[in-house]
Design goal:
The chain is built from 16 helices and 13 strands. By secondary structure, the protein is α+β, with helices and mostly antiparallel strands. A hairpin with a 4-residue loop joins β4 and β5. α8 crosses α11 and α13 runs antiparallel to α14. It is elongated, with a radius of gyration of 41 Å. It starts with 6 loop residues before the first strand and ends in a 21-residue tail after the last strand.
Length: 415
């Protein structure tokens, strides 16, 4: 017996509302459709391209009602991924009319429960949208990471309540004044102590409080022999030329009163050359490997400066050694410690803060953090030095301890 043949025809003239509705019930099959009353609803916002194709199908019976839609979380995702067709065969003409179809998943609507309302896309956060995409189209690894993150996530409300409760308990136990003092002490440590040179407050002599070998190791001190020899042999004409070229006044002042003893003169010349290098670094924004090459700076000293007084920063595809603001404070403390060894455990803060380009208050804060005693130069000495007033820092044992001054700035009243 030969198989019967037929032809099929696609109905192109039908509109969106003429699509064939194919539905399935989530909790079973329907034996008789005569007991169900169907209603088909469409969105009234026909001008909105996002909502005009939304449809809701309702099937009501005497016992229970069923609802299905083609949008939201309860809809079938297959409607957006592919198209479905239903063929109607006319057995007389053996012609099949093919119509576009739309699938609905009918779910029971229990009395007393409200239908879930989807959160508008405009109100969803970027993280929520990304999580939704991972749930729908993500790989197994991405879904596993998403599930792990959600399991480890703590609710914001409970976390805030726990923090507030813990804070209130600490305030009741210690009090506000004690907590403010602890915060001030911690800020003092963070701001200054981390950038101070190695200190031994229990030292027997003043020279050992800030050990010289922590500022310059034996190998680094030996590497400064050639540059120190040149500085120790400067003539009066060369000193005048250095002054005209803007040599730091702290360095210039000590070059004019160099010791006569060869050993002491060599040591001070090396220290002054290294001090002038640190002052020069304090005025730089970036330090490269070529820095100091015009001054015959030893390579070991350049490496020490870049390692100790710069931070690495990645910019424009290159790693740069940046002299950050915190490193300028560190440079000031090391220059001050080195100056103490040069000038018999005293240092002129007035000249040093001007050479470094720091504010006077910052220089005083560094000196106080190092436990130095502060005083002012008498008027007659100040006149000889060319300044109206000098502030002198002196290292004495035991080290000075200063109370951190905290004051809140008053807000200006708006008129």
């Amino acid at each position: 017996m030969a198989a019967s043949s037929y032809t099929w025809k696609y109905c192109e003239e039908e509109k969106e509302d003429d699509n064939v509705v194919v539905l399935q019930f989530s909790n079973g099959n329907v034996k008789s459709t005569d007991q169900l009353d169907f209603n088909y609803y469409k969105n009234v916002l026909a001008s909105n391209p996002r909502k005009r194709n939304r449809r809701i199908l309702v099937a009501e019976s005497n016992r229970l009602s069923y609802v299905g839609n083609n949008f939201g979380t309860g809809s079938l995702r297959c409607n957006s991924l592919c198209k479905y067709y239903v063929g109607v065969l006319d057995k007389t003409s053996m012609q099949m009319d093919v119509h576009s179809a739309q699938l609905f998943n009918m779910q029971p609507l229990i009395p007393g429960e409200s239908m879930p309302v989807d959160e508008p896309d405009t109100k969803k956060s970027y993280r929520h949208k990304v999580d939704s995409l991972i749930e729908a189209f993500g790989t197994t690894k991405q879904k596993r990471a998403l599930s792990s993150r959600r399991n480890n996530q703590v609710a914001d409300d409970s976390l805030q309540q726990a923090v507030a409760q813990a804070a209130s308990n600490i305030i009741e136990q210690k009090g506000v004044e004690v907590l403010q003092q602890e915060v001030a002490d911690s800020e003092a440590v963070t701001d200054t102590v981390l950038y101070l040179p190695v200190c031994n407050p229990e030292a027997d002599t003043e020279e050992d409080v800030y050990p010289f070998n922590e500022l310059l190791s034996d190998v680094e001190y030996a590497a400064l022999e050639s540059v120190g020899k040149k500085m120790a042999g400067l003539t009066s004409e060369e000193l005048l030329k250095m002054r005209e070229q803007g040599c730091p006044q702290t360095v210039m002042r000590h070059l004019e009163v160099m010791p006569v003893d060869p050993k002491a003169r060599d040591r001070q010349a090396r220290c002054l050359w290294y001090l002038s290098l640190l002052i020069k670094v304090a005025h730089q924004k970036f330090i490269s490997r070529k820095f100091g090459s015009e001054d015959d700076c030893p390579k070991i000293i350049i490496n020490k400066v870049m390692k100790t007084f710069t931070v690495e920063s990645f910019s424009h595809g290159r790693v740069k050694n940046v002299v950050a603001s915190s490193m300028r404070i560190k440079l000031a403390s090391y220059c001050l410690a080195l100056l103490l060894h040069i000038d018999h455990q005293t240092a002129n803060l007035t000249r040093l803060h001007q050479d470094l380009g720091l504010h006077d208050s910052r220089m005083i804060e560094v000196a106080k953090s190092m436990g130095l005693k502060l005083s002012k130069m008498p008027a007659e000495c100040a006149d000889q030095a060319g300044f109206e007033e000098h502030r002198i820092a002196t290292l004495q044992l035991p080290l000075m301890k200063y109370e951190r001054f905290t004051q809140t700035k008053k807000r200006k009243k708006l008129r």
